[in-house]
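Let us practice reading a record.
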Amino acid sequence: MREVSQLADEISDWITDYRRCLNDNEAKYLRAQLSKTFAEPFGYFYLTYKLHKTPVKTRPVCSDCASITHALGQWVDEQLQPIVKAQRTYFKNSFELKQRLLTLTLPANATLFSFDAVSMYTNIDTEECIARLERYLMDPITRQQFPHFSAKALVAAIKIIMRNNRMKFGDIFVRQLIGIAMGMAPAPTIANLFVALHETKELLSFLDNGPLLLLLRFIDDGLGIWLHHENKDIDTINWQRFQSAVNNGGLRWEFTERSKQVDFMDLTIQIADGKIQTKLYRKPLALHLYIPPSSCHPPGVATGLIFGNILRIYQLNTQQQQIETDMIQFYHNLLDRGYQPSFITPLFQKAIDNAAKYLSQSPAYRQQLQRKRLEQSRRRVFLHLPYHP
């Protein structure tokens, strides 16, 4: 408990030292959570299996939501989010990626490739990550570009988070010494920025003056469009130089072959007649284990399941025939889970109408509606009651 007391004191001192950088609600929340989590201060460590890998691998996870550092991690994440979103290789989700790809007209020598970080979180050197982020955040140019944060407060908070990830596994208590603080709220954001800073320094030259037409990344998954040189030897040298530059950033990345089609995230992306086409990608072991109708979830959950998936089918497919194929497959998947046609058929029609209406709206109008809903949610008062079907 001595280490816990020291960590609690360190967080408390940080709140005192940088109180002027916090609004009243932030300061109140941080102090309340510090007191609330003191008795049970550690996250919980567990493994999930990656059954689609050969051989089968595991993903280490730390459930951090009730740990003593979680509230401070949330604050760090909020401060870093606008910075990460401004990075050149950033994109929000598959739909945004698709929209950006559809604007491209590609020459005949263009091919697609993807690249994936090997165990990103656990292989990022802690001190190197802190040093890289500190140099960037303390830079006057960065502070001028992003005036919303206090550089000293943010760097100090990042150091506390990165160096104090403690977790419980059964009756074992451990402290993470190497890697991004797994399970912490800002872990994806910190990892994203760590790689983005290397990309800005070493890789964007391939975009501006080289064989890359496009380079985008979603945390540890990257996508690129390569323009082949007419001389195969020069093209091979350029490709090797690019791979080396990617791998010199503190992580090891694995690359797919360059081709006219690639599976990336939940998309199959293809070049056809100089334009991009996309369709939904599902892993071979996808079992489509949707919530069954016998589950004790409120009825609205099933409605949301159908509306959400229909919208996703419309958003991510570029060809109408593929949309119809995916909807039929989704319909049969729900039947396999026990849903009755009389229940899901009317919902499918409403969901199709909803998807068409949503996609007809401009991005600006969608953002306006989103802000309105957010404002309404802040004024909403919740009455929690137990639900039993």
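A brief commentary: DSSP finds 14 helices and eleven strands in the chain.
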